[in-house]
């Protein structure tokens, strides 16, 4: 099906993550008058000029593209807040700062379609890029510390897009460690030393194929 | 259930509102704390759960039926719109709901296809009637194909589809879905300590809204009761 990703390994495509993010509510200021919208996903409006109201992100972007509204930048996307977050991210090498779960998708959509509504947009853009880089660097260094017998990993404050980027690798890594480190495997190696070598399990090889 | 003309826009809106109210009441009667949500939202969560889970989850028959009705109503009501903007926004909303529904159904079908033998013998609650039919037919077609092309040419002891040979004591060629895989999840209510494996060595304290990567086997029960969300 067009747009659907492979279900094995529970992979969401980036477009699907954005799809989920597009349902987040955001405030807009319409410049037209429009009756209330009774949609499947909820009721919005009525829309009056210069009266702010909340709509899902996909609706806000659609209206913005047609020039029917301006989008109010969320509070967390101000230069002050983002600078604070960036400094805090740089200072704590193991922790992630709390950010909206879909901050990557929301900021990407707003920067692409509503850059004229964002104050100091170039600063905001570069701050968000820096934040993304610092956080992902932390994720990568965190991955290096995964050792055998890791049963659970705690990733507080990680965002949706970051989770999705790291998901395939992390799942395979944990599964591989699980398979190679389990006590049954160790025991079998001892007892079957005299028998012929074990046939490689084809099923597991599927997991390791690079995509 | 197509209805033509003679129906006002406000009547349609009332009916849609009523449908949504009914679904909200159904959801709310189950547990007092659950906030009212639209069927689309519920479908989105079901889709996400199904995508993230390595095994087939229970079919959300009621939800799918209600959503289909609402989509049908919305499609019928399109004739009333003369404004370009309104109708294109309605189309977008419709497309989003349709994507969720279609993706959910196809996702389940691909999971069933991956483990045909296993799901053919599971309880009816897991599969919808149509999925059950699909499973039986696929199984029949696959077995027939394998028999004709390969199995009938093998010596008699090796002709079974589920056993390597007649000397096997169980169905060793049937693989149930891998439940050992790891999933990303977030508890939405307080769960507290969770035992991670049978040995009881490792306990993880699950805090609300923290993100964890855990083995699916450890959290299956929590996922089923909705106390933990799969990301």
From TrEMBL, chain A:
Region (Disordered): 182-211
Keyword terms of this UniProt record: DNA replication, Nucleus
Example of a GO biological process term: DNA replication
Primary subcellular site in the record, as a coarse category: nucleus
Summary of subunit composition and partner proteins: Component of the GINS complex.
Membership in a protein family: Belongs to the GINS2/PSF2 family.
Name this protein carries in UniProt: DNA replication complex GINS protein PSF2
Lineage of source species: Eukaryota, Viridiplantae, Streptophyta, Embryophyta, Tracheophyta
From TrEMBL, chain B:
Gene Ontology terms: biological process: DNA-templated DNA replication; double-strand break repair via break-induced replication
Database matches in InterPro entries: GINS_A, GINS_bundle-like_dom_sf, GINS_Sld5, SLD5_C, Sld5_GINS_A
All copies of domain GINS subunit, residue ranges: 72-146
Keywords on record: DNA replication, Nucleus
DNA replication complex GINS protein SLD5 C-terminal domain location: 177-231
Organism of provenance: Rhynchospora tenuis
Coiled coil: none
Function: The GINS complex plays an essential role in the initiation of DNA replication.
Protein name: DNA replication complex GINS protein SLD5
Localization in the cell: Nucleus
Primary site of residence: nucleus
Biased composition (Basic and acidic residues): 32-42
Pfam families, per database record: Sld5, SLD5_C
Any single GO CC term annotated in Swiss-Prot or TrEMBL for this entry: GINS complex
């Amino acid at each position: 099906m067009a747009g659907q990703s492979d279900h094995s390994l529970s992979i969401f495509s980036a477009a699907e993550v954005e799809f989920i993010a597009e349902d987040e509510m955001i405030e807009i200021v319409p410049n037209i008058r429009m009756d209330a919208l009774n949609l499947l996903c909820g009721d919005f409006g009525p829309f009056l000029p210069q009266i702010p109201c909340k709509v899902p992100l996909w609706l806000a972007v659609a209206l913005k593209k047609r020039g029917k509204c301006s989008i109010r930048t969320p509070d967390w996307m101000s230069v002050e807040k983002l600078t604070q977050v960036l400094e805090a991210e740089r200072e704590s090498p193991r922790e992630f700062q709390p950010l909206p779960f879909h901050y990557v998708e929301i900021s990407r959509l707003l920067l692409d379609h509503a850059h004229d509504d964002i104050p100091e947009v170039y600063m905001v853009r570069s701050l968000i890029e820096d934040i993304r880089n610092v956080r992902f660097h932390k994720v990568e260094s965190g991955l290096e510390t995964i050792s055998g017998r890791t049963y659970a990993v705690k990733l507080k404050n990680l965002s949706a897009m970051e989770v999705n980027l790291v998901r395939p690798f992390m799942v395979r890594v944990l599964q591989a460690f699980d398979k190679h480190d389990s006590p049954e495997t160790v025991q079998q190696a001892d007892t079957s030393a005299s028998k012929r070598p074990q046939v490689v399990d084809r099923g597991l090889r599927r997991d390791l194929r690079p995509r | 259930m197509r209805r033509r003309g003679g129906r006002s826009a406000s009547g349609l809106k009332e009916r849609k509102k009523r449908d949504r109210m009914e679904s909200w009441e159904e959801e709310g009667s189950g547990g007092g704390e659950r906030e009212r949500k639209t069927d689309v939202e519920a479908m989105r969560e079901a889709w996400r759960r199904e995508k993230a889970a390595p095994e087939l989850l229970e079919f959300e028959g009621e939800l799918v039926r209600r959503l289909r009705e609402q989509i049908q109503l919305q499609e019928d009501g399109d004739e009333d719109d003369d404004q370009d903007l309104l109708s294109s926004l309605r189309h977008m909303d419709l497309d989003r709901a349709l994507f969720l529904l279609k993706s959910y159904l196809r996702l389940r079908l691909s999971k069933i296809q991956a483990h045909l033998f296993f799901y053919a013998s599971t309880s009816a609650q897991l599969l919808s009637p149509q999925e059950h039919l699909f499973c039986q037919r696929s199984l029949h077609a696959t077995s027939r194909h394998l028999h004709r092309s390969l199995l009938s040419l093998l010596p008699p002891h090796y002709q079974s589809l589920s056993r390597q040979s007649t000397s096997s004591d169980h169905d060793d060629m049937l693989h149930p879905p891998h439940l050992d895989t790891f999933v990303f999840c977030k508890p939405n209510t307080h769960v507290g300590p969770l035992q991670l494996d049978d040995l009881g060595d490792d306990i993880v304290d699950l805090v609300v809204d923290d993100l964890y990567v855990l083995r699916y086997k450890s959290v299956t029960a929590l996922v089923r009761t909705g106390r933990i969300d799969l990301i």
